[in-house]
Amino acid sequence: MEQLTVGDKLMNTLATWKGLANGPIGTGHLLYAVSRDREVGPLLDAFEITPIVVRTVLRTPGRAAAEPDAGTVHDGESAIAEGPFDGNVQVRGTSDDRTLPVSAAAATALRAATDDSRMTLLAAMLDDPGSEANAVLRDCGADPAQVREALRTGTAPQRPDRLAPELRPARDALLGRVRYRGRGFKDRLLFSVLAREINHAARPVMWTRLEADERAKRQGRATRTDDVLLALLVTHEVAAAYPHLTYAAARHYDGGRSLLDKKIDHRRVLDATLDDRPDEVPPGKILQPGPDWTEDTAVLLERLAAHPANRSSRLLAALGG
């Protein structure tokens, strides 16, 4: 069994992934680990590659892995594969007795990172066109050659933002750049525990609720049903720009899709005007945690349109919805 010794920094990088790995660590897993690094993270973030993005892509059902000798992402429910992994290189740190199994591609990249640098490790992983790290970048819509060039120069590129300004806060929450705080103690407690490892696109109605609350909070008032309607469209349009994050819930986005089919988009909702009459049935009564909760935006849209005196219903009527 071949053993490889690496510096303590890279051993800690391997350990970052170990809690999530279900088998030997591959370059895709290492990409997740280095994306959390203070130096590497901002460079990858310029290409919209963040920890939650990498983790979500690696967990895509049916996705073909580029490194068959690497493990999967542990789903938190099945038993962790304990080995033995006799066919894999075993890695240990210079001051650490632990050994961790890695894929052949990961071992090659670790050997090249002789300076114990995560930047060097990432560059070595991307030098192998067949690595899982390269495959993940491509699945995210990034060009590995451009990422390698940014690594060579040490400078994150200035790339034009492809989303309208009013969509960017929801996008940044989706990518894990910012965190929704919620409006009450229970919300704050929940999201302080879950932190940034939430793929909001997998739960489109919860995402809509969080985005609606955030928008209302920025305006210093209670959340209204027209906020929810706007958030439904905003999150739908953001999700459409990041299809690699929506695999788990693609069938639940029909609410936004049906509005767009009627030429009702977030811009038209923002530009519309309503009188100051409040909702007869507030969002808290329409979206109540419990057995009636839905993650289907088509069901949410039906509920938003079910009360004619509500702000969302009046807005839809004014827009021809």
TrEMBL record:
Instruction: Quote the InterPro entries the UniProt record gives.
Output: Clp_N_dom_sf
The protein's name: Clp R domain-containing protein
